[in-house]
Amino acid sequence: MNMKFQAIITLCCLNLAIQNVNSQAPAEVYISGTASPSIGVIEYSIPIKGAYHEGFASKARISPHGRFLIKLACSQTSIIFFKIDDQQKHLMVIEPGDRFELNIVGEGNKCNFELEGPNEAGQVLYNQLPKTGQLALGLYQDDTSRVSLQLKMNSAKRNELSQFEKLLNSKKITKTFYNYVKADLDCYYATLQTQLLLRRLLEADYTNLATIAPSFRQVLQKTVSEYPFTQSKFLSSRWWYDYADAYLGLEVLLDKDFQPAVMGNVISYGLDHTLRLNRAKQHFQGQYLEFYLAAYLHEAGLADQNNEYLMTAFSQFKRSFKQSDYLQFITPIYESLALKQQLEQEGFSDQIKMVDGFERFNNLQEVLKPFKGKKLYIDVWATWCYPCMVEFQYIEQTRKILQKEGVEMLFISLDSEANHERWKAMIKEYNLEGTHIRANEALKSDLANTFNRQGRIFIPWYLMVNERGEIVRSFANKPSDFSGLERQLSAIQLKK
Questions:
Q1: DSSP code of residue 42
Q2: What is the distance between the alpha carbons of residues 68 and 62, in angstroms, rounded to a whole number?
Q3: d(Cα 380, Cα 447) in Å, to the nearest integer?
Q4: Are 98 and 122 in contact (CB under 8 A)?
């Protein structure tokens, strides 16, 4: 009896130990390092259950002493990126418990990333692989034969993988690092094949879709059979979403009930989102469906403003995945869209003045004539300009500075007629008190000459004008530079 009782206790302890291992929290990855304080912040992606998407990211602030620290929860081998000023990008493969020292030398698009830590040689080699699929597509777009295309891609993949095999054999990288790269390359070339197929279908005469569809579907099924989507090793690849998205695009076009003649209406009314998302629900489930829907909603929400089908899809996502870790990244986008919809239904405040007949202004002097006797701070912007929106965050403080000096604000938008409603909605959203006009093509050309940079304008752009309608500052300080803006106003007083 004693031995039997002891055996039961031992078995229970063993089961408890197994449960503890399985429920163990992800091991944290620490990345510390140095960078120029003038860079300000480093953007980096956050792997959610190992999945990679550029939209799921955060920022680390660089201290005045040039140090930063990033701490990530990591449960499996994953890929992350670092980005400086939305330009220079560096990729890193991480494993649970890794510790890295990352030194960023230089600024802007001339940064060098110097890494110390696990798999150093492999990290350097991985960053030499293609970072976008679009550049690589050009290498294979002339191959009309699937056999020829497959041979060329397999040869390229073997050459790339052989370099990592050498590092593995010399024990410069771990087996898990190697296995990650191998799966990542498989997913990358599956993505290229699928994207090429989609491009060719769109370039073909797909009004005759019934005739050409069978051959396209056959090639698609061969690719998916060789590289199935539902592999956990693929989900952590930086290419999985692109692979899935191209595949679903083909599925929509190759559907026997699809009518090419109505495609224009489908896109213009936003129904393409519904088609794509419904197709995803047919082909994916669990973590694959959750990740695809979240990534799609993130990208589409940023690109397609105020689309009712997307708003509905987001509401459905929240109901289906109530505890999703992705909600932290996509919820702010759709809350902003909901606010814009609400603002579009409201009128302008008394402090916002829209100039009637602004289309008649063909140059800056015509714009300034009605403001004779007034001092102006001019903000040249556009709804598609992200840095412009960043500066709008400081608009209240700027208004106080200008009012103290008796200066009014004039906003000149470079938006086209197609963005007219979005222009008005954004004025309400950011409460841009002041006078507003939208530049016609002649005024844009005149502004470009005033900017005097080979016919180009870089926005946001700020000017100061005195009571006589003369430009006294062609490049005034931006709203976020409070002290600099105050000094300019104080020194010039816009009266010269």
A1: E
A2: 5
A3: 9
A4: no
Residue type, 103: N
Asked if 427 contacts 348 with a C-beta cutoff of 8 angstroms, the reply is: yes
d(CA 51, CA 389): 30
Residue 259 CA, chain-centre distance (Å), reads 32
420: alpha, beta or left, given left = phi > 0 and alpha = psi -120 to 50? alpha
Instruction: Give the separation between CA 149 and CA 143, rounded to whole angstroms.
Output: 6
Report the alpha-carbon distance of residue 459 to residue 67 in Å, rounded.
Answer: 31
Instruction: For residues 235 and 286, give the distance between their C-alpha atoms in angstroms, rounded to a whole number.
Output: 12
CA atoms within 13 A on the CB side of 286: 7
Q: Which of 457, 461, 471, 412 is nearest to 437 (CA)?
A: 412
In one-letter notation, the amino acid at residue 193 is Q
Cα atoms in the 13 Å half-sphere on the side-chain side of 3: 0
Note if the pTM is more than 0.70.
no
Backbone angles phi, psi at 406, to 5 degrees: 70, 35
Tokens of 310: 């997307």
**222 contacts: CB under 8 Å, gap ≥ 6:** 146
Residue 260, C-beta contacts closer than 8 angstroms, at least 6 positions apart: 206, 207, 209
Reference 475, options 458, 491, 454, 456; nearest CA is 458
* Cα gap 485→487, rounded to integer Å: 5
288 CB neighbour count, 10 Å cutoff? 20
| pLDDT tens for the chain, residues 1 to 496 | 455 445 444 444 444 444 443 334 568 999 999 999 988 889 999 999 899 999 999 999 999 999 999 999 998 999 999 998 777 789 999 999 999 999 999 876 678 899 999 999 999 999 998 766 655 666 666 666 777 778 888 899 999 999 999 999 999 999 999 999 999 999 999 999 999 888 888 777 666 777 778 888 888 999 999 999 888 889 999 999 999 999 998 888 888 777 665 555 444 445 578 888 999 999 999 999 999 999 999 998 887 655 778 889 999 999 999 999 999 999 999 988 887 777 666 667 788 998 888 888 899 999 999 998 899 999 999 988 888 888 998 888 889 889 888 899 999 999 988 888 888 888 888 889 999 999 999 999 889 888 877 677 888 899 999 988 888 888 898 898 878 888 888 776 655 5
Here the tokens at position 199 are 């491009």
3-state secondary structure of 174: coil
